[in-house]
Structures are given as C-alpha cells and as structure tokens.
Amino acid sequence: MNFENYFPLWNDLNIAQKKLISDNLITQNVKKGTIIHNGNLDCTGLLLVKSGQLRTYILSNEGREITLYRLFDMDMCLLSASCIIRSIQFEVTIEAEKDTDLWIIPAEIYKGIMKESAPVANYTNELMATRFSDVMWLIEQIMWKSLDKRVASFLLEETSIEGTNELKITHETIANHLGSHREVITRMLRYFQGEGLVRLSRGKITILDSKRLETLQRS
C-alpha cells in the first residue's frame, strides 16, 4: 500500500498540498535500536509508520528512561515535530524497537499545510490530545499503581504484541519501559517466578499463568 492509503487526511488535501507532500516525503527503513528522533536536538517531522514498531520515551537527568507510548503499523507521531507548535516544550526520544519502515513529512511542510487546512489543523489537535492522554494515563499508573501490577500489565501487553508467551526481553529493557531500576525489576520477576507466574532464563521470560497476571493487574 502507498502513503495515500496510510495517511488519513489525504482526501482532505487539495491538489497543491498533495503534490507538496509527495515531492518532500521522506521514506526511511530503520533497523532495530536506531534513534529516529532525539529530543529538542531534532525537529524531525511527522512520522507515519508503515510497518514495524517504535518506542517514544523520556530520559531523566540521571539517565533513567520511561516509555510514554509505542507506535505500530499506521500510527502517527506528532511529538517528533513538536517544534511546529511553539507552546509545546516536550523532549522525547523515539527509537525503533523493531526493524521499521516509515514515512516522514518534514516539519515545515506539515506546518505550512496545517495553517492552510482546517481538517489538518483539527486532526493535529486531536492527535496531540490523544498523545497527552496517553501521558496522563502513564502518570496515573506511576502515582497510583504498585510496581507488581505495572510489571504484570507490561508482561501481558508484551505477550499481546508479540503473539507468544515466550518473551525475548531483558530485565534492563523492562526497567527502561517502566522507569525503574534493573535490580528492582529482577527482584519482582524472581518473586513472580516463585509464585509460579513466570519462568526466567537468560534473555527470556516465559509466561506460565497469564490469568493470575490479569487478576494481579486488576487488583
């Protein structure tokens, strides 16, 4: 499928705007682990994922990471072009969690079209509101949900994304997603193992009792 089939506003654009995007559209094929956008150092542009998986996270002064949200097929990210909205001062890093094919609409191109087109401006506001809702949900999880419930939720989310109960993931990676320390995550996973919820091996976590994990995350 072509870009026009993925971009939800394509039919709302006029001929000149479609040509402007087509002439300036950037196609990228990025490998797992590639940093696509790095905080205020970049104003990358609007990202549209064709296939793959991206992770958007923030980095503390101490070097700790916490995942804000992830992007999958047909998802769009505007925070990588936050420079087009002056009131937003939000530093995020975007990394490829898997090999990913994506399109980038340069920030200045998108900004110009957004000024001309009411549908694009409205969609941009809706997209930004959705992402900030994701961030607010995350803050609520951190403030009010205990770590065991957050780890259980993360493991269940991973099994859904990967389609398997055998997760090839390190304790360090989980800590980075949840804004915790590797040692704390390791202790929690060992507790889960002792309770018969998971089985741990080098670089892999096998989910043994997803129903009890679901009960734990809801309790």
Automatic annotation (TrEMBL):
The molecule here is called Crp/Fnr family transcriptional regulator
Query: Gene3D superfamilies, from UniProt?
Result: Jelly Rolls, Winged helix-like DNA-binding domain superfamily/Winged helix DNA-binding domain
Record-linked InterPro entries: cNMP-bd_dom (IPR000595), cNMP-bd_dom_sf (IPR018490), HTH_CRP (IPR012318), RmlC-like_jellyroll (IPR014710), WH-like_DNA-bd_sf (IPR036388), WH_DNA-bd_sf (IPR036390)
Keyword set includes Ion transport: no
Does the keyword section mention Transcription regulation?
A: yes
Tell me which residues make up the HTH crp-type domain. Answer: 145-211
Keyword annotations for this protein, in alphabetical order, are:
DNA-binding, Transcription, Transcription regulation
Give the species this sequence originates from: Dorea acetigenes
